[in-house]
Amino acid sequence: MPVLRTQVAIVGAGPAGLMLGHLLHLRGIDSVILENRSREYVIERVRAGVLEQGTVDLMTSSGVGDRLQREGMRHDGIYIAFDGARHHIDMAALTGGRAITVYGQNEVVKDLIAARIESGRPLHFEVEQVRPQGFDGTSPLVGFVENGERREIACDFIAGCDGFHGVCRESVPADRLNVYEREYPFGWLGILAHARPSSAELVYSNHRRGFALFSMRSPQVTRLYLQCAPDESLDAWPDERIWTELRLRLEMADGWRPNEGEIFQKGITGMRSFVVEPMRFGRLFLAGDAAHIVPPTGAKGLNLAMADVSRLAAALTRYYESGSEIGLDSYSEASLRRTWRAQRFSWWMTTMLHRPPDESAFDHKRQLAELDYLVNSRAAMTSLAENYVGTAFED
Ligand code: FAD
Ligand code: DHB
Known about the structure:
The protein is α/β, with parallel strands linked by helices. It contains eleven helices and 21 strands. The chain has helices at 15-26, 39-44, 53-61, 66-71, 91-94, 105-119, 239-250, 301-322, 326-353, 361-376, 378-389, and strands spanning 3-5, 8-11, 31-34, 50-51, 73-75, 77-82, 85-90, 100-102, 123-124, 128-133, 141-146, 149-154, 157-160, 178-194, 203-206, 212-218, 221-228, 262-277, 280-281, 284-286, 292-293. The strands form four sheets. The chain has an eight-stranded mixed β-sheet with strand order 7-6-15-16-17-14-18-21. The protein binds flavin-adenine dinucleotide (FAD) and 3,4-dihydroxybenzoic acid.
C-alpha cells in the first residue's frame, strides 16, 4: 500500500483545516490535507459571514488578507430591533475601536485554497473512508481511499478539522469523551438575494412572529435569515412567503425594511450548542466544529475555529522548533476556555432574540425587559460589544 509521510495530517478542508495548513506552511512545517467533498462543493457552501477582528488580523498577518482588505466590509456597530424600533450599538466606541468585518466564509475558503495551491503542499479532495489510527502512540496513521486505491499517511500528529459530522471525534472511544449539548426548538432559514443592502449595518430583530436578521455579502447582495421550525422543509417556503415574512418581522415603525430582489440561494440550518471535552487525545487534536458548535446568533462558529487553529499552529511550531510540549499540553484547556465564553454569549444572544414555541407570557415580558435594559445601559451594551467583536487570539 502506498504510504505518504508528513508531519501533520489534517482531516477537513473547511476554514479550520485550511488555515492550520497555511500557518504550518509559513513556519516550514509539512502537512497533508484530506477532504471528502469536491473543491467546488467546499467553495460554494454558503455559511457564516461575520469575521471578528482576530480572524481579520490572522488572515492579514498570514498573507491571505489582500482580497479581504479590498472587499470585506468593516462594521463598527449593529442594530438590535424590537417593538418596531432599531437601537444602535456602537461597538467600536464601546471597545476602544474594535469592529467586525462582513466577508463570506466561502470567500475565506477560496482565499485559503488559493494559498494552499500556491504553496505546492498536498490537498486531496474527494477522498473516502478516512480513518485516524494510533494516536495514543507515537506514530499515528491516517488511512483513506483515493480513486478507489487504499492509501496511508504516517505522521507525527493528526488534526481533526472535519466539522461536526466528521470522523475524528467519532474515532475516539465514547468513554473518553465528555459531551455537553443543547438543542433549540427552532432553526434558521437563510437566503441570499440580489438586492442592495438597505442598511450599512446588521439588524437583529426580536419580533412576535419570530427572530429575523438582516445582513449582507456585498454592495449588491443582501443576506437575510428568519427563525423557522427546526425540521422545516424548504418546499414550504416559496420566495413570496419568505418576503412576506421578512417584511412582517423586519419593517420598522420609521418605514425601514430590507430591499428585495431575486433570491439565488436558500438553506435551513438547525441550531445547537455542543462541546466535547477534552480537545486532545494523545496525538489527535480536535479544532473548530469537530469539537464545538454554537447557535449562529452570536456569529462565533467560524471565529472559534480560527482561534483554535491559531493556537494549535503556535503549539506545533514550538514543538518542532524546541521540542517543548507546553503549547500542546495547554491547547485543550485554553481552547475550551474561549469556547465556553463563546457558548455563553451565543446562548444568551439566541435566547434573548428568538421566540420559543412554548414561550409563556412571563418569559416574553422578561425578554422585553432584557432588551430594554440592553439598549439603555452602557454597561450592558459594552458587554454585548466586547463579546461580539471578540477578544484578541492569544497563542
Ligand atoms: P467545517 O466548515 O464544517 O469544515 C469541515 C470540513 O471537513 C468540511 O469541508 C467537510 O466536508 C470535511 N469533512 C467532514 N467529514 C470528513 C471526513 N470524514 N473526511 C474528510 N473530510 C471531512 N456560523 C456563523 O457564525 N454564522 C452562520 O450563519 C453560520 N451558518 C452555518 C450554516 C451551516 C449549514 C453550518 C453547518 C454551519 C454554519 N455556521 C455558521 C458555523 C460555521 O460555518 C462553522 O463554525 C465553520 O464552518 C467551522 O469551520 P470548520 O473548518 O471547523 O468546519
Ligand atoms: C451572518 C451570520 C450570522 O450567524 C450572524 O450572527 C450574523 C450574520 C451572515 O451570514 O451574514
